[in-house]
Amino acid sequence: MDLDKLMSKHLTRAFDPSKTIPAETLQQLLRFLRSTPSSTNIQPNHFYVLATAEGKERLVANLGERFQDNGEKILNASHTIILTTRADLPDSHIEEVFSKETADGRFPDPAKRALWQSMTRDFLNLRKYGYKDLNHWMEKQTYMALGMTMMAAAELGVDATPLEGFDPTSVDKAFKIRETGHTTTVLLALGYPDPEKAYTGPTSRFDADQLFTFL
Ligand SMILES: Cc1cc2nc3c(=O)[nH]c(=O)nc-3n(C[C@H](O)[C@H](O)[C@H](O)COP(=O)(O)O)c2cc1C
């Protein structure tokens, strides 16, 4: 990965509609997305991978009136992922995580497993009743998966642009997402840039002395 190149690169706003991510590259990226970690291994996500014109058009038709400018980006991108997060955290989900960890052999020692499960429940109760930020906390996990996947895409030579410009209520309704217990958090458009339309000006970020404090 060429970090210097990445540091001066604009996020892609104009994708080349004639280019499609090869199947194996997409699968590798999705394997990576599946592998991203989450706090207490809570895994609060479900991902909708839109590869077809029909899927992308359904998303574009439901972005909401004020977000129409993102439509072309999605239609021209090779793929767009809808990253959704659990809208609540029922005990059945926590049990599902524990069952999978047991099946995968994460904690072969029953005492260690019991300790982990009790610490997890304690932490989740703190988020729910103490800090009262359970949904926000789960969405933070989604953003971490988003950021890591953007970096993985760069490694694979794929441009990845996150999109927050959409109406989540409308997108949830169009894909019947709330019915699954999830809600849309953020979109990720993936593909290859249209070189004719790429921004070429400098990127603008605060200077390092404003950003870093060394102690
Ligand atoms: C989380 C996130 C959401 C974004 N959502 C949108 C969006 O909906 N539409 C869009 O055109 N750009 C979107 N952007 C791009 C930012 O506006 C852009 O990265 C920022 O203005 C800096 O521009 P640069 O990447 O060209 O330096 C998003 C970027 C991030 C990190």
Tell me the span between the first and last alpha carbons. Answer: 30 Å
CATH architecture of the domain at 3-88 and 138-199: 3-Layer(aba) Sandwich
CATH topology of the domain at 3-88 and 138-199: NADH Oxidase
The top level CATH class name of the domain at 3-88 and 138-199 = Alpha Beta
Q: Percent of residues in helical segments?
A: 40-55%
What is the rounded Rg? 19 Å
What small-molecule ligands were found? flavin mononucleotide
SSE topology string:
HHEHHEHHHEHEH
What does this protein structure show overall?
Helix content is 46%, strand content 13%. With 215 residues, the chain is of the alpha+beta class. It has a 4-stranded antiparallel sheet with strand order 1-2-4-3, sandwiched between helices. The longest helix has 22 residues, at 134-155. It starts with a helix and ends with a helix. The model has no long low-confidence stretch (mean pLDDT 97). Flavin mononucleotide is lined by residues 10-11, 13, 70, 162-165, 199, 203.
Keyword list:
NADH Oxidase, 4-stranded antiparallel beta sheet, binds flavin mononucleotide, alpha+beta
